[in-house]
Design goal:
This protein is α+β, with helices and mostly antiparallel strands. It is built from 25 helices and 14 strands.
């Protein structure tokens, strides 16, 4: 890697390079936010010969997603093979300079438009006064000239001013045209180094995400590939399925795992642009198949219920290599994998490393072979009772919510299907979650909060109606009312993993019995989904020698 080299450029060459497409602003730069007044102050400093800071350019033959126009002025794309300078530092200054000297209009995100043609030179200003101004209403006619006209105006236009201004007009024009802009050129570095430089320069700003960098790196106009647009298109497809909350990071991890079986940041940033673009269509198709599988096979209706969004990655990896439905041998192995990851808090830390390990497990499953696991899960009723503190951010709790959703819970009052929505689940007090034994009721009975707020006391309901009818009533009271309106109440309660209401202590308001019986039922349902494995004396599952050999082969 070459060391950064200091260089310089005058106004004419700098603006010519911009208009030839040789200097570009990468899309990961923030929007142009400088006001007309701040831009005028920059030009005032240039006219007075003050330092205006150093531009830092990244010189490369790579093609990034970049700003296509400044204001209403389209900027050309450079020719293939040409070196381009991407602005790492100085975007606000460079845009101000270009907009003011060309007199272009800049439309802001707010919808407001600033006309940079309305930037003027006040010819009667002293050297200590503001020479470049944006308001001339109070200035005498003939004492000011548009900055654009000063630079680009004809001889006749400038000569029309009173003679005592001619020397000043000529001097101001010369100062701008001869101003020597300081530039540091960073050459022959990969994009991850260039963006690291950008991040360090902008220490007060938000660091660039890997996705933002990859949007810039993978942009390809001839192939009509824009990662930001492609991701938005995918989210639009997932929105009707209620899976629109997936993160952009999951897609990058998926493509990287497909191509390299690794997904660390450094690995993603070094992916071949061509390979990334080639893989994207099949990768997103596999991702959509994984979503459909979760919705249809596991009956997880919305992405907010997923214990981890990350779980979509290994499943999409599976469908990338196996586009059809899982075979009879693969299906239980996938289900076992899902529940072990969910209940075991698999992706609570070191996500990239664990994903790299887990795609090797998926490789095993693709061959119909059982992988081994170096973590155990406890689904015993006692464990559920002791560790069931309800917090919808915990993966193990979300796993049990997925189990509840699989039953397709029905409404207490009329046996209609409960509607589960991502929007509701974003709320701190979700409309979908209801304590079967109301918190207020149990509080009055002096039950400890940790026992009240247990996942085994949670049911999924459809809206506030059940809560409004239930309020703080004991179950024996409100369930009698529902029995009158719902002739299929026993079937309804079974859809909530609540069995015979006598056995569950509902009619006697016996909370201890209710928790114990529901713990048994939930435990039994989980046992159907997890393949029992013998545990060695060290507390770990036994090693699968065949799997161990295959894992080594991947290294």
């Amino acid at each position: 890697m070459m060391l950064p080299s200091p260089t310089h450029s005058n106004y004419t060459n700098l603006l010519t390079d911009i208009e030839r497409g040789q200097v570009k602003i990468p899309q990961f730069q923030r929007d142009f936010v400088w006001t007309m007044q701040k831009s005028a102050a920059l030009l005032d400093s240039i006219i007075k010969g003050y330092p205006v800071g150093t531009f830092i350019f990244w010189s490369t033959k790579d093609r990034l997603r970049s700003v296509r126009d400044l204001g209403n002025t389209p900027l050309p794309e450079p020719k293939d093979g040409e070196t381009v300078s991407f602005v790492l530092d100085g975007q606000q200054r460079l845009t101000s300079l270009y907009a003011a000297l060309r007199g272009i209009k800049v439309e802001r995100n707010s919808g407001k438009t600033d006309d940079f043609a309305d930037m003027f030179i006040y010819l009667d200003a002293g050297e200590d006064d503001q020479i470049v101004v944006t308001e001339v209403a109070d200035l005498a006619e003939g004492t000011w000239i548009r900055l654009r006209d000063l630079i680009h105006g004809s001889f006749q236009q400038l000569a029309a001013f009173p003679a005592h201004y001619h020397e000043r007009l000529s001097e101001y024009r010369r100062r701008i045209e001869s101003y020597d802009f300081s530039i540091i050129l960073v050459k022959d570095v990969p994009i991850d180094v260039a963006t690291e430089i950008f991040t360090r320069i902008n220490v007060g700003g938000k660091p660039l995400s890997v996705f933002e960098i990859m949007v810039a790196k993978t942009y390809d106009e001839p192939r009509e590939f824009d990662l930001a647009e492609k991701f938005d298109e995918l989210v639009a497809k997932l929105e009707p399925l209620d899976y629109e909350t997936v993160s952009d990071a999951t897609l990058l991890q998926l493509v990287s795992l497909i191509l390299t079986k690794e997904c660390k940041k450094q690995t993603i940033l070094k992916l071949s642009k061509a390979d990334f673009i080639d893989t994207w269509p099949r990768a997103t198709d596999a991702f959509e198949r994984a979503v459909e599988f979760f919705r249809n096979s596991y009956r997880i209706p919305v992405s907010q219920l997923l214990p981890y969004n990350t779980l979509l990655v290994p499943f999409a990896y599976f469908f990338f290599h196996h586009p059809d439905k899982p075979s009879a041998e693969q299906r239980p192995l996938l289900e076992d994998f899902f529940w072990r990851c969910s209940l075991g808090g698999r992706y609570s830390s070191a996500v990239e490393s664990k994903l790299a390990q887990d795609v090797r497990r998926i490789d095993r499953i693709l061959k119909g072979r059982s992988p081994d696991y170096d973590w155990a899960v406890d689904i015993s009723p006692d464990f559920l009772l002791e560790n069931g503190w309800f917090n919808a951010g915990r993966s193990s709790i979300k796993a049990i919510l997925c189990l509840y959703a699989f039953q397709e819970p029905k409404s207490f009052n009329d046996d209609s299907i409960v509607s589960i929505r991502n929007y509701w689940l974003k709320q701190a007090n979700s409309k979908n979650y209801h304590h079967f034994f109301p918190r207020t009721y149990l509080g009055k009975k002096n039950v400890e909060e940790w026992r009240i707020n247990n996942i085994l006391n949670i049911t999924i309901v459809d809206d506030y109606l059940n809560k409004r009818e239930i309020r703080a009533k004991p179950p024996a009271t409100y369930m009698k009312a529902f029995r009158k309106s719902n002739k299929a109440l026993d079937k309804t309660m079974a859809s909530h993993l609540i069995g015979d209401l006598d056995d569950f202590g509902v009619w006697t308001n016996d909370y201890d019995t209710f928790l114990a019986e529901r713990a048994k039922l939930v435990s039994a349902e989980l046992a159907k989904r997890i393949i029992s494995r013998q545990i060695d004396t060290d507390g770990q599952p036994p090693r699968d020698d065949d799997y161990e050999e295959e894992a080594v082969a991947f290294e």
